[in-house]
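Budget justification aside, the reviewers requested a transparent look at the raw inputs and outputs of the sequence design task funded under Objective 1. We therefore reproduce one unedited record. The lines immediately below are the structure tokens for a 99-residue chain.
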């Protein structure tokens, strides 16, 4: 124990992973737009490894990404609903009821 911290037991880490439907929807949109992972990453303001992790199912795009993806599809006249997509919302702090 160092400074009151128990470093022997790692805390469980839960990653938000994409489902097969979400991975397919992301790949479908990127393919319809004829974009590489590099170009999509640039357009969305994320790294290439982030797009790659989305498509491999190792991470889930945040709510801040799904809306621009849908907008990007609409601007380019690509019919894409993103059906079956779930959004990884950031955790909210508990509200204590005080104003």
């Amino acid at each position: 124990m160092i400074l009151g911290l128990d470093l022997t037991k790692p805390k469980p880490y839960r990653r938000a992973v994409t489902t097969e439907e979400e991975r397919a929807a992301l790949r479908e949109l990127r393919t319809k737009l004829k974009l590489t992972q590099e170009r999509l990453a640039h357009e969305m303001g994320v790294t290439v490894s982030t797009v790659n992790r989305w498509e491999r199912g190792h991470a889930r795009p945040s709510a801040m990404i799904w809306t621009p993806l849908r907008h990007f599809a609409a601007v380019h006249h690509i019919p894409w609903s993103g059906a079956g997509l779930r959004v990884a919302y950031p955790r909210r702090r508990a509200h204590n009821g005080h104003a």
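Residues 55 and 96 are 38 Å apart (CA to CA). The chain has four helices and no strands. Computational costs for records of this kind are itemized in the attached budget.
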